[in-house]
Fold each of these.
Amino acid sequence: MELINTSIPDLFIIKPRVYSDNRGWFMESWNKKDISANGLFYDFVQDNQSFSAEKGVLRGLHCQIGDGAQAKLVRCVRGSVLDVAVDLRFGSPTYKKWFSIELSADNKIQLLIPRGFAHGFLTLTNDVEFLYKTDNFYSRDNERGILWNDNEIGIEWGIESPLLSEKDKNAPRLFESGVYFEYQSLSYV
């Protein structure tokens, strides 16, 4: 698998090696040894999966704080999404900056999101299945949300009226959210 830097420190695109023939294809979606060889150490403990029936569903922005903070490895296994990660690590050179990428069943690209980021995605097709690994267990007490269109962050979603859950419709803006992370750059080889 290929580890690709993004414009935000510690946020990586993972491009797996896909082996195809007349029967179909095979790929490794995660290899702890390969990632550790690059100086990144993650111990994923939980896998989550979501299904969105319609194009235009927006899920996010979500994160967990404190002892419940989570790193995530995300990918789309059916359909296509615009995936967004927001750096919320106070003191980071890219604090409040966001990165977006299209993840799809066709491109098989993944995004490795460290702790200290909010995450969300917008479905670009109908019938989307989305998977993510986390390095910490879900904690309702540590769960936080930030309004998807908070102008302090300014994400360009490309949609005016997405389909949102009630929780996401009523999420606070960043300055009201209680989300706070200290920036500590990951060390890698």
Amino acid sequence: MIRQAGIQDAAAVAELARLLWPAHTLQELETEFEGFLADSACGVFLAIQDAAPVAFAQVQLRQDYVEGTQSSPVGYLEGIYVRPAYRRQGLARRLVSACEAWAREKGCREFASDCLLDNRDSLGFHLALGFAEAGRIICFTKNL
């Protein structure tokens, strides 16, 4: 079952998000997702199997320029994670479909995402779901 998460799901979403973004603490992610879940410009979806959350996807409306797009706002897949034991069952595809439907309901005509240049698994995942590569960039930082 795929369903939109509510504020009551912040802890469960944070647990899954920590597996995707391990540099963050569980408390940081729970606080962050409490904000996302209360924001109408953000959607979070859960895949439930065996009565437990096993995957999540986060989508947001981006008003700023999104590489390769022509409209605004753009629905943006911010993150997606499926527990290893539940992969290859179509859950990620169903989560992305839920995110796309959410974005359409919010008036978006385009949907976008990103991945790191060396993340071949994510690249393959995005291409398999019908995304087209819009470009490649290398980001720089400099301490001031």
Amino acid sequence: MNTQLEKAIIIKNEPWTPEYHLLEFAAPGISQQAAPGQFVHMKIPDRRDILLRRPFSIFKANSETLSILYKSVGSGTRHMAQLLTGQTVNLMGPLGKGFPVPDTNKKTLLVAGGYGMAALYLTAARAQAPGLLFAGGASKKDILCAQDFVELGWDVRLATEDGSCGMRGLVTTILDAWQSRHKESFEPELFACGPTGMLKAVAHRAKEWNCTAWISLDHYMACGMGACLACVQKINRDGEERLACTCKEGPVFEAREIIWEES
């Protein structure tokens, strides 16, 4: 799989929720190669004060187009919200090691926190059979694209900390409830993306349940190519502890490889 620099043309840039926007590009060179869990690096156009590219998980991709979801929180993303259809944007991608194909002999469980739902969509779209999505957030506004998973035939379970959508509580609460009812019936395979605390909790459960979990780490990836060493993660692979660049060897790692910092 070859990383490309591509002049992508904006097809759509519109509000998705009050806080998030959907940005869709015509970028066939990247989109044709995009795998679940990979990301693109985008150069913010017309802003000389923003030197570094910004990493964004690939939400949807087909033979011609790809899309991302982004939250307007800083000067760069606020500027992105003003980009117009037809404008050209410099994209680099697809980058990183994404999620593997789900094992058809296991029950596929996707676990998402907030923005992590977007990064898991391609895994759901390309899986041979629908599984379950467990998604959570602080409130209803943090549940981004649940209907997109429903339209793929997935069983979607939701939780919010304030109870405004789905069950009240953390996403691990509904995950634990499902596992306690089905632990004798299915061997799960977990795919997770979201805040670090959630990822650590999912990895802990995978160890406790003796199952495989694929974890997409939430690190800022400044260069996207493994050169700047800003996104290193301590891992244990084949009995050897070392530092791995999340942008190049990840962002997806098998949970047993990750050495979590003590909190």
